[in-house]
Amino acid sequence: MTEKTSETTPDSEVRALLRVLAGQRRHVLGILDGLDAEDLRRPVLPSGWHCLGLVQHLALDVERFWFRAVVAGEEEIIRGLTSGAEAWHVTPEARAVDVLDGYRQEAELSDAVITTTPADGVLAWWPHELFGEPHLHNLRDVLLHVITETACHAGHLDAARELIDGRRWLVLT
Q1: What is the pLDDT along the chain (173 residues), one digit of tens a residue?
Q2: Distance (Å, rounded) from C-alpha 25 to C-alpha 58?
Q3: Please, what's the b/e burial string for 12-23 (b: 16 or more CB within 10 A of its CB; e: otherwise)?
Q4: What pTM, to 2 d.p., does this model score?
Q5: Contact partners, residue 125, CB within 8 Å, separation at least 6
Q6: Distance (Å, rounded) from C-alpha 68 to C-alpha 4?
Q7: How far is CA 124 from each of CA 15, 48, 57, 110, 140, rounded to the nearest angstrom?
Q8: CA 65 to CA 106: how far, in whole Å?
Q9: 111: which residues sit within 8 A by CB, 6+ positions away?
Q10: For 48, left (φ over 0), alpha (ψ -120 to 50), or beta?
Q11: What are the distances in angstroms from CA 113 to CA 10, 82, 106, 157?
């Protein structure tokens, strides 16, 4: 068995942030557990989005974009980025299980980037045309941003799930 070098072992700060992100990812998937494909596609808010579209957004616009494009600078990912709300659109023929598995896979690929990048590691690419001058500067900033965005969307999924069938993720009595 080979030992990881310090280059591939994330520091304690990155490990702590990754644990928090993993918890939010579990929340996203957990609140949807038990919904059938029809309910996953049912819009319940006036904006018209549905749970499956939000999960696909998290996979493509959040995990893939921030870690594989911005942090790692993967050219193929950068070239394939779309603009607008395309990630929210799930085609009718797309299977719900494939969208959920796609989110899991993007999270795994993100983790590979996160665990091999120092917290202060500079970003490989920045989309100036979208965001102007950088307001995020390193892996730490991106992790905090993605944790916040994922937690926010987990809350959206909580509300949608409660409207669909009354199930709640966190019940305080």
Answers
A1: 434 444 557 799 999 999 999 999 999 999 999 999 999 999 999 999 999 999 999 999 999 999 999 999 999 999 999 877 899 999 999 999 999 999 999 999 999 999 999 999 999 999 998 889 999 999 999 999 999 999 999 999 999 999 999 999 876 66
A2: 9
A3: eebeebbeebee
A4: 0.92
A5: 69, 70, 73, 78
A6: 22
A7: 21, 35, 22, 14, 14
A8: 10
A9: 18
A10: left
A11: 10, 21, 11, 26
- b/e map of 25-63 (b: 16 or more CB within 10 Å)? bebbeebbeebeeebbbeebeeeebbbbbbbbbbbbbbb
> In the numeric block, which tokens belong to residue 121?
């590691």
Judge contact between 113 and 71, C-beta under 8 A: yes
How many residues are listed for the chain in this entry?
Answer: 173
Instruction: Indicate the burial class of 164 (C-beta count within 10 angstroms; 0-12, 13-18, 19 or more).
Output: middle
